[in-house]
Amino acid sequence: MKRPLKQLIILLFILLSVCAGCSNKRYVRHERCYSHIEERLATYIAAQDARIGVAVIIDGRDTISVNGNRDFPMLSVYKFPQAMAVADYCMKNGVGLSDTISIRGDEMKENTWSPMRDRYGVGDLRLPLSELLEYSLRDSDNNACDILFRLIGGTHVADSLMKAMDFDDIVIASTEDEMHRDIYLCYQNRSTPIAMAGLFDRFYRQEMRHDSPLHEAIGRIMMTCTTGNSRLPAPLMPTNAVIGHKTGTGDVNSQGRIIGVNDVGYVFLPDGRGYAVAVFIADSACGMEETERMIANISDIIFQTLFKR
Question: What pTM did the predictor assign?
Fold first, then answer.
């Protein structure tokens, strides 16, 4: 009796140790058949002059993680959880994709990234909710993002939804305009790679994208994302793999380092499998092109290893 009891205690200790490393119990590893990918990623990441976190959830069963439980600035990646909050708000308040949203001229900030402003100019107008979502998610438009925050009642509404969905490690606190006026607020809007990969896993693999026409639209828009083609999608382009993703890009901080260059998404492999992947790079000493190449290289390690195994 003593030997089985001792083995049981050891097993429980191992399980508790694994759980202690995960802030969200849903992403505890269930198997270790992909440990070779994690080892390759850890070796690559250790050689880069940047703070890098990666998480991969494969078919909902296996979590690969390198710095996966550390906080990273989300930057425009947070426009995806924000879109989830927009969908939640609109469903509760009877707002549909074709309904128009009023926009004040002073909401069309001039000194920020905004293809919407470039098209419509600075002035009062009304646009369908669907178009605002497209500008925010597909083009990463900062003005569209802040208009959507105003629509739902502020950043705290999106943050509260993440907590209600058990994504405590996704923190949404500042608007795009606030981050533009104080770039160090970019570090306040943060997530762990595991939490954000988990949100994409729930949305795409667990079919949350089919919960409503709004969710369907969000899923379609991210699969036509126009930013970050040199990041996660780069090694996928010659294949039949498909990705729905959201990028985030930051400015240079006072230390001369890029605050963040991110890409998070869900990859549908040609063989029917799929995986959620989050790559966050913070405080990179390299230029934008080289930092984006790091994400592409990480994506290539994951994709090639999975596809050829």
Answer: 0.89
CA distance 267 to 264: 10
**For the chain, how long is the longest CA-to-CA vector?**
79
Residue type, 271: D
Distance CA 150, CA 165 (A): 22
Is-catalytic flag, 17? no
Ramachandran area for residue 141 (φ above 0: left; ψ -120 to 50: alpha; else beta): beta
What are the C-alpha distances in Å from 33 to residues 49, 55, 150, 160, 278?
Answer: 29, 15, 45, 35, 19
Distance CA 81, CA 68 (A): 18
Exactly one of 17, 23, 35, 76 is catalytic; name it: 76
Q: In this predicted model, what pLDDT tens digit does every residue of 7-26 receive, in sequence order?
A: 443 334 333 333 433 444 45
- Find out whether 297 and 304 touch, Cβ atoms under 8 Å: no
Tell me phi and psi for residue 15, to 5 degrees. -65, -40
Of residues 269, 214, 220, 216, the one with CA closest to residue 245: 220
Kindly state the DSSP code that residue 13 receives in the 8-state scheme: H
